[in-house]
Structure formats: C-alpha cells, structure tokens
Fold each of these.
Amino acid sequence: MTKAERIFNQTRYETLRHIEQWGYDNAIDGGWGGGWITVTVDCPDGELIHKRTHNALAKLLEAKADHIRRCSQFNLWTTDKLDLELKIFQMMCKTHNNTRID
C-alpha cells in the first residue's frame, strides 16, 4: 500500500465516522480543515504531504468518482448507500482542496 492509499483510506474511514455521527450538509460543511488525515503511530503530529503524494491522492479521488458513477449508472447500490458515498466523496474533495503541500 502506498503512502497516498494509506492516507486516502484513513481519511475515508474518519470521514465515514464523522458523517455517521454528525451528518453532513454539502452547502454548510467543508472538508477536514487541516487537510488529509496523516496521523500514524510513528508520527502523531501527522506526516508531510508533498506534491507527488498530493497528485496521487487526486488520482485516487478521480478513480473513486468513476467508481461511484458506474455504481450509480448500473444501480449496484441502494439509494442510501449512494447518498452516503456521495457525501463521503464530497467531503474528501473539499479536504483535498484544504491540504497544504510542503
């Protein structure tokens, strides 16, 4: 698993937990203010994200968008599942835009 995949999965998990607990309104809520969640056991203050990792995260977001689009097109998910995935995706896109690149 690459650094970008690990960060993407950790942020997606935390986003899912946030939405399940607090809900999400796209018009009001933004993404994670500090950007991608990069806290690990070895680095409790978070890792730096460089341009290469930022670009890899953008590609993962594009792949996720394609996946959501296909699942929606072929009705593979229930309406509730699709709604949840769209909320997670929107919050992660906003998080990507909030990320400071070092």
Amino acid sequence: MAVPEAFYREAIDLNRYSNKVQFQVATQFNEVIIDVLRKIRDLEGNSPATTARLRSILAQMVDSLKGWENESAVYMIDELQNLAEFQVGFVQDQLQRVLPKGEFQVNTVAVSPDFAKSVVTRDPTALTIRLRDSDGIFKTAQFALTAKRGSDISLPNGKTVKKAFRGIADDSASRLSKAIRLGVLEGESLQKIVRRLKGPNLSFVGKPKNAIALNSALKNSEGMLLSNKQIQTVVRTTVNQVQNAASQAVYAANKNITGKYQYVATLDARTSSICQRLDGQIFKYDQGPVPPQHFNCRSTTVPVIDDDDLAKAYPDTRPSATGRVPQDTNYANWLKDNPDLQKKVLGKKKQYFNYLMSPSRGKKQLDATNALKKLSVKMDLSYHYNNLQKNILMPIKKGKSQKTITGNIRMLMNEGKSRSQAIAIALSTAGRKKTAKKRKKR
C-alpha cells in the first residue's frame, strides 16, 4: 500500500493558499472599518452637528459592510471555482502517473460552471459533476452530489459562505456601534474610543503585507480581532471542503485504480482530537468520514493504491512537525514517539496517555492508537466547545418574539447544544424564563 508523495506536499500548499485567500477577504473588511474609524477620529466637539455626523458615519458603515459582503462572495466564487478545477486536474494527473503507460485512461471529472456559486450562495444539493470517457464524451450517467454530499460543502453549522459573511457584517456593525455609543456615554473622547477599537498596532496608513503581519497588528484590537478570526474560519473551512469534495469525486470515478482512501491529519501540536483519532484510518468511498470535521480543519484525504509494483515508485514517508516519518505512522504513534510534544497536545492528560500504554497494566495495556482513542472521546467535547466559542459565525438574534426564540433554539442545537441547553439560552436571551407546564386538576 502506498500514497503518492505529491498528495502530502499539496496539503501543505493548500494551507498556504487558504491563508492567501482569507488575507485578501480580511483586508477588504479591515479597509471598511479603518475608513469608518478614521472619519470618527477626525470629528471634533460635542455639538449636535457632531452627533448627527457620527450617526451618519455609522449608517454608512452598514452599507459599506453590505458591499464588502457581496464583493467577498464574488471573490470567493472565483477562487473556489479555480480551486475545484485545479484539484480535479491534480488528482487525475497523479492517478494517471500511477498507471503503466498505454494500459487505460483515468476517468476525468468535469466541474459544473456554477459549482462554486452554489457552494457560496445557494442550496449545495443542486451541485452536479459529470464523467467523461477516454474520448472526451460525457457519459450518460451523471456523478451527482446528493443532499448528503452537498452538506459536506456547506459550513459545519449548515450555513453558506454568503450567509456567514452577512452574519459577520451585521454583527460587526452592531458591535462597533454599541461600543462607540457606550464609550460616549461613559465620557470617553472619540479619539480614545477609536484607538481602543483599532488597537495600538494597526496603522491608518500602511497595510499589513501578509496574514501573519495582520494577525500581529490586530492582537489588541477590541473592534476588529473577532471579525477577522471569523473570516479566517469561514475561508479556511470552505477551502478545505471544496478541495476534499473535488478529490473525492475523482477517487470515486476511478475505483478500478483506488478502491479506498486514507484520512490524513497534520502531524503537529495544533491538530484537533477528532482528527488525531482519524489520522491513518482507511475507508471505502462513501463509507467513511471526510474533512472538514470541524471549523478550521486542516485534514485531507489521499487515495490508497494496493499494488506492490506501483507502490515501489513512491517514497514511503510523510511530513510532520518533527521531520519526515514513515508513511504508515499515524498521529497516535507519532505522538508516542515525541514525548516533548505530549504536554502541548494533551496537557494534563499526558500522564494518563502514557499510563494506558504502560506494560504494568498487563492485559489492559493499550497500543498508542487505542490509548489516544480512549482519551479523544472526552477531548472532542472540549475542543468543539472552545472552537464554537472562538468562531461564532451567526450571533444569537435579539428579540422576544416566538419566531426569534425558535430560530435561536434551532441554531444552538445545530451548533451541538442539547435541546434543553438551547431552550434555556434562547429564553435567557429573550429575557424569559422556562416555566413548567401546570397539570390540570381532575
């Protein structure tokens, strides 16, 4: 069994590409906010005219953010369409290289021109991919992305990219307006409010040159940091979804070459517990989990080639944070072999992880894979809770109407809350208490 080395290299390149796209979207968002804060900074005095001008600037901010939402959706459509077409071509090329020359051709996959538009703006169940035969003719049978497959191309909370951008825009406008009004009521000068919202490291003049510089500049920004994290989450997760959907389409079209795929996580200390557990596992197509398993997921899938002669053509290694390791090394064994990283990955559970693998347990001794699996069930809950707290894509709506409360309950349950938790949070937001139903006396 072997995996072409190029698939591992491509996973690293994909992370770089994702950073480039999210940096572009975030930069456009930040330009809108910086322009608003610059105009507020230049206001002088506390006259009625100043107050009216401030209200006008805040109203213009709402319109500008709507413009950002639409422009970002168009940009994402273009980037995701190019990504899907590139990924399909890349996988087809790698599979063709596996085959002895002249034997038979890899089935190619044509991506619908509206593929990316459906991912960003519409119901993802409408997507279709069609197969071509070796003569370039479409086959009569279509490879259709069903509702189940389509759900893999919406964000983990079920929202489209455009709706997520709309939520970020609305939430940012509301949050900044409230922060400015509260600062004014507390007697802060407009200049001081602007400095606090912008942060000390972000300049009105120059722009950060890349994603790393941008994250550093926003470190202490009260008004922009959360929105930028949310943008990063939306873009990274969507790029991962489209890349994996395109790859799986080509794999499924060529089951005579590769009948199974392998789940591949990133071997470093930032990988989530669920992806740690899935790393290295092999599944039949349409019968196993596909990334992303959560927001900001960096995992991917690679085709498994069960042919000893063909496998010899590829290096039997994969990259990791500690250097190249054998290709059959999964996350658990990599972590076992790197005790210095165990504290960073497992925290206080490091000791328990090693105890589970200890020979002193006799027949109860577990190998690294099962030891990490036992730990990760509990770790999954903590990870997903923290991930949702950091990346709230659609804020809870304010209001006391039954429609608003019902919508909030549905959204919270989609994010993983139990029904009782969702009801309690939604009612608390609406300023109501959950009351027990009174039994009628007979």
Amino acid sequence: MEHIGKCGASSEDFLLKKFSISRTTLNTLQDNKFLFRQSLDVRHLTAPEGVWTLKQKAKSLQVKGSYMTGEPTRNEIPTLLYLEESLEVIRTKYKIVGEVSERKIKGQKAREANIPAPAHNFTAGITPEGAEARLAIMHGEAPDYRIVYKQSEDAPIQTLNIEIHGCYYGVQLRDKIEAFMKEPHPTLWIVPQSRRVAAHVQKFVDLYGTSKIMVKHIDDLKDLQP
C-alpha cells in the first residue's frame, strides 16, 4: 500500500512481479476497502491493464505526507504508471531520501505565493483572486515528480525534477522547456513513447542550449549516470 500511495497508481503486473504477491491478496485488500482496481487502456497496450489505487481507508493508516494528494484522475494514470516503472530503475542509481508528487509541488508553489490551501476543493473557501491564482498554478507547468537524493552516504543532498511524457509540440513544448529552465533544480525528462518522440524533445531542448534538462528515452534509464 505504501508503494501505491507514493506513486499514486500501480499496474497489477508490476505489483505481482515486484512484491511476489497473488491476485487473491490484492482482491482481499480490495474487498476490505483498502485498494481499488480498474481495468484501463490508458497506455494503449495490447490489452487493458489492471490499475490499483488506494482507498481512503488505507490512507488513514499511513503518514499523510507519504502520499499523493487525492485520487489520481484518468489523465494522470498513464504518467503515474510510467513513473512507477522509471523510479524502479532510478532508485538503483540514486540514494533517494525524499519524494514529492506533482500535486504537492504545485501546493508548495501556492504556499510560496501566500495562497491559502482550501480544506477540500482546490479553490473552495478562498477569495476569487486567490482561486484564480491557485487555478493558474494548478494548470501551469510543473514537473511530474521530484526526488531528493545523495550520490553517496557522505555526499550533499541534491534535488532532481522528473518529467514523464514526450508528446508535446509547438507552444506547449516551448512552455515546458522554458518552465523547467526557470526551476532551481535540474530536470530528468523521461520519454516513454517512441525514440522518435524522444529525439523530437531533445532537438527542441538543444535549441535552448541548456544543461538543466536531460532527455532520456525510458528504455535508456539503465544507462543513466547521476
């Protein structure tokens, strides 16, 4: 449950392989309202895949700060599943001491802008101006994930942003690159689509001459050098 909570969503195949558990165990957790399963075709694979997320009962048993804020939307799930697979490799390269989801990154941006956090809804209970500013942050550019890591036990703490996806073009691609260049931390941009898409993103990053963005196809993460 901790793994699913940190990632936001998990594929059934990944859970069965990584944790050597049975579908019966997963079904029991679902029957007891700890987990929720959907059959989705969000990644356009050969067949729909089982996707597991946390129910509120499971979240209440754990430290709130360990988890993604709220339930993932259908649009977020493909990114979260690719993130799950990517982090499995990244953890072999980095000694990770902290992890932050996109929603929490945007929440931090809101706090830094002195916009109060609503109790439930993203814009409920605050002024119209505050709601507008908060929505601008929600719909603005932010990395999908952030890790805090050390290269060795005695090394200083460093921060790395992670972006998952590559199908951006024109103004949207430009805005993402420019937003990541303004970030105080470097960004690892992981492209799970084809290598042609990864080359397209790399081409536009190169136009900016920045060293703050590193583009990697998801299959090349094994060659990642921290």
Amino acid sequence: MAYHNEQGQVTIDEAAANVDIHRIREGLTKLNEAQKSINQLKTTASSMKGLTGAAIVEQCMRLEKQITDLQDKLNGSIRFIQKTVQKYKEEDQRLANKFRAGGGV
C-alpha cells in the first residue's frame, strides 16, 4: 500500500519498505557470519608466535569494529524505515478520518 501526502503524492510504499528491511536483515546476517569468522581467525592468530599473529589480531579487531559500526547503522536504518512507515500510516488514518467526517483536506 502506498501512502500519500495531502497533495496526493505517494510518499512511501509499505511493501517496498518491507522489502528494504528484509534485504537489510539479510545483510546483517551475512555481517554476523563474517564477524564470527573474523573472531575465529583472531582467536587462532592470538596463539601464534611472532609479529604475524599480532598483525592478524590487530586487523581482526579493526574489522570487528567496522562490522559493529555497520551493523549499528543498518539497525538504525531499519528503525528509521519502520518509524517512517508508521508515521505515514497514522497520517493516512488521520486524513481518512477527516474525509469521513466531511472535513476534506
């Protein structure tokens, strides 16, 4: 269902928003898998002797932080999309009630 503003312009399509959320969640699942792999690599590398192991651990920590930051941003995007859809549902309901009451726009 598409939501419209007072000028009748489509402002958000709930189905498209849900598809976007689904895709973001799929991306988050892949990021979680990558994070687990990096954590396993870090654990293995931490038992290595010499500078190579330390360098791998350092890079793993950097990648873990980047993944965490990206996960936070993607979760924020999901919340924003959901909040926006809810806002337009409420606005559509308000306008529908106004029309039913004979008030027009």
